[in-house]
Specification:
CATH topology of the largest domain: Butyryl-CoA Dehydrogenase, subunit A, domain 3
Strand content: 5-15%
Distance between the termini: 38 Å
GO cellular component, one term: plasma membrane
Number of domains: 3
Low-confidence stretches: none
Keywords: Oxidoreductase
Structural class: alpha+beta
Shape: globular
Order of helices and strands: HHHHHEEEEEEEHHHHHH
Pfam family, one: Acyl-CoA_dh_N
CATH superfamily of the largest domain: Butyryl-CoA Dehydrogenase, subunit A, domain 3
Protein name: Acyl-CoA dehydrogenase
InterPro entries: Acyl-CoA_DH_CS, Acyl-CoA_Oxase/DH_mid-dom, Acyl-CoA_Oxase/DH_mid-dom_sf, AcylCoA_DH/ox_N, AcylCoA_DH/ox_N_sf, AcylCoA_DH/oxidase_NM_dom_sf, Mycobact_Acyl-CoA_DH
Helix content: 40-55%
Radius of gyration: 21 Å
Mean pLDDT: 86
Number of strands: 7
CATH class of the largest domain: Mainly Alpha
């Protein structure tokens, strides 16, 4: 079901797989969104730093900023293999959101300072976008940043902060203008999580991990903490989604899960034609996502911005993640809810973790929101 690429890219894929075979810990179950178990976190961080030592973090970034200057296609292959292996890579906020924003609008000094610290895994980032009354709609942000001399003073509250206690800095979107329009009212700041006035309140979630509510009470940051220009935060965040030229390969993880189920066999209840039909549908959706992803990557290689191909892929991925989990639950029966430490858990207990994680797929916007964006920005339809 995998698209065959050039011999050079297939050789690159083999190199990645050889690295994973040698370096991926035998037991590496890890929820990259909010797993706070100390032993699993240390395992994930150690593995991530091995990736960094290979120069594979920030693969497409310019070499002068700590990257490797490789192509978006090479990066997509890397991301596919990491996803298929369920590799525990941390610091996604730094690698994708923060780095993309810095590349899109940061000053030369910020690029030269902040990006190498991300690619080497020296600085870990947490996300400070979502608020109690502002999720995907950044126009509803209430966190304020006010100038005070050469500094900024930030006050507000952020919700669902993943990796807060483990991270070094917070990527903060704050309102710096009273404009109603999102486009000119939001600015981006980097805030040291050890700064006076920063408080993290732990919040356990249904996925079995901990996120934080982050309180910013008059947090003073220097002027250089503002990334890029004041009021351009929204455009920088949008630019971050294009800077790597790649697409999150959820399809690669889904394909690996489906293959694991097909190879499992023993003890699985028989469901005949019904199961075969479902497997075929899921396999088709994997292939559709892959083709859409490579359309986006190809457009970026050619210097074009895809109108909505990546958005379509995200909608499919978000809507089919729960379907994958529900199908595993039906085929494997009650045993699919056994955790990894339970005797007789099928596939090492992975289906239980997949089921929990599959319904936490709202990060970056729900599928309904993605559909709205496709309609308005992709197809030009009115709101």
């Amino acid at each position: 079901m995998r698209r065959v690429l050039s011999p050079e890219l297939e050789a690159w894929r083999k190199e990645i797989r050889a690295f994973l075979d040698a370096e991926l810990p035998p037991s590496h179950a890890f929820n990259v969104e909010f797993d706070d178990a100390p032993d699993r976190w240390e395992t994930a961080l150690e593995f991530s730093r091995k990736l960094a030592s290979k120069g594979w973090i920030g693969l497409t970034w310019p070499v002068r900023y700590g990257g490797a200057g490789r192509s978006p296609l090479e990066n997509q292959v890397l991301l596919e293999e990491l996803a298929a292996a369920d590799a525990p890579v941390v610091n996604s906020v730094g690698i994708f959101l923060a780095a993309g924003t810095i590349l899109a609008g940061g000053s030369e000094e910020q690029k030269a300072t902040l990006l190498p610290a991300i690619s080497s895994m020296r600085t870990l980032w947490a996300e400070g976008l979502t608020e109690p009354e502002a999720g995907s709609d950044l126009g509803s942000l209430r966190t304020r940043a006010v100038r005070d001399g050469d500094d900024w003073v930030i006050t507000g509250q952020k919700a669902f902060t993943s990796w807060g206690p483990m991270s070094d800095v917070l990527f903060v979107a704050a309102r710096t203008s009273e404009e109603a329009s999102t486009s000119g009212a939001i600015s981006i700041f980097v805030v040291d999580l050890r700064s006076p006035g920063v408080t993290l309140h732990p919040m356990r979630n249904f996925g079995g991990g901990v996120q934080s509510t982050t309180f910013l009470d008059g947090v003073r940051v220097p002027g250089e903490a503002l990334i890029g220009e004041e009021g351009k935060g929204w455009s920088y965040i949008m630019g971050a989604f294009y800077s790597s030229g790649t697409v999150e390969p959820i399809y690669s993880s889904q394909e690996a899960r489906l293959q694991a189920l097909l190879e499992h066999g023993d003890g699985a209840p028989e469901h005949g034609a019904s199961a075969s039909s479902d497997i075929a549908e899921l396999a088709l959706m994997v292939q559709a996502q892959r083709l859409l992803a490579y359309e986006v990557v190809g457009d970026n290689v050619q210097g074009r911005r895809t109108a909505y191909g990546g958005g379509v892929q995200q909608v499919i991925a978000k809507e089919y993640e729960p379907r994958f989990a529900q199908f595993f639950d039906r085929v494997l029966g009650p045993a699919s809810q056994l955790t990894a430490d339970a005797a007789g858990a099928p596939l090492g207990g992975a289906p239980e973790a997949w089921y929990r994680q599959s319904f936490a797929n709202h990060a970056g916007g729900t599928s309904q929101l993605k559909r709205m964006v496709l309609a308005t920005r992709g197809l030009g339809l009115p709101r």
